[in-house]
Amino acid sequence: MPKITPFLWFDNNAEEAANFYASIFKRAKVHNVKRIDGKVLTVTFEIEGQRFTALNGGPMFPFTEAFSIFVSCDTQEEVDEYWNKLVEGGTPSRCGWLKDKYGLSWQIIPKALMQLMSDPDPEKSNAVFQAMMKMNKIVIADLEKAYEGKAA
């Protein structure tokens, strides 16, 4: 077992959530479901090599944006796929953030955003930042237009 594993507190749907996440990511699977008196207590699952443990702990501690899962994407198609699947039944937010139907926050971010915002020319990097601030789902083509000084 890895030394550090994020531990996620769900109300009563940890197994459902783990199966949902495993259905979205190509390199994902549910490893172990621990039951007590027939009810799911914890679920261990993995997404892209990162292990998680999910607990059915009750409604006392809902998720907030203070914790999010960052997904680095190579292409717009990858951004679109993850965004569309994770936001279904959830809530979109700004700058590539969303809350899934379980209330867990995700950041679906193309690598191009970080590359364009890292440009040493502050005018270009600021233009990309300003374009991102207007987006919910990140659109790489619109970031590139902003970078080139064209209206997005």
Description:
- The mean pLDDT is 96.
- A hairpin with a 2-residue loop joins strand 3 and strand 4.
- The protein folds into two domains: 1-61, Roll (2,3-Dihydroxybiphenyl 1,2-Dioxygenase, domain 1), CATH 3.10.180.10; 63-152, 2,3-Dihydroxybiphenyl 1,2-Dioxygenase, domain 1 (Roll), CATH 3.10.180.
- It is built from five helices and eight strands.
- It starts with 6 loop residues before the first strand and ends in a 5-residue tail after the last helix.
- The protein is 33% helix and 30% strand.
Number of strands: 8
Compute the number of structural domains.
Answer: 2
Instruction: Using the 3D structure, state the CATH architecture of the largest domain.
Output: Roll
Main sheet summary = 4 strands, mixed
Measure the end-to-end span.
46 Å
Side-by-side strand order of the widest sheet: 1-4-3-2
| Quaternary structure state of the chains depicted | single chain
Number of helical runs?
5
CATH third-tier fold name of the largest domain: 2,3-Dihydroxybiphenyl 1,2-Dioxygenase, domain 1
The secondary-structure element order is EHEEEEHEEEHHH
Structural class: alpha/beta
Proportion of residues in β-strands:
25-35%
* Percentage of residues in helical conformation: 25-40%
Instruction: Supply the CATH class of the largest domain.
Output: Alpha Beta
Low-confidence stretches: none
Q: How large is the radius of gyration?
A: 18 Å
Output mean pLDDT. Answer: 96
How would you describe the shape?
Answer: elongated
CATH superfamily of the largest domain, please? 2,3-Dihydroxybiphenyl 1,2-Dioxygenase, domain 1
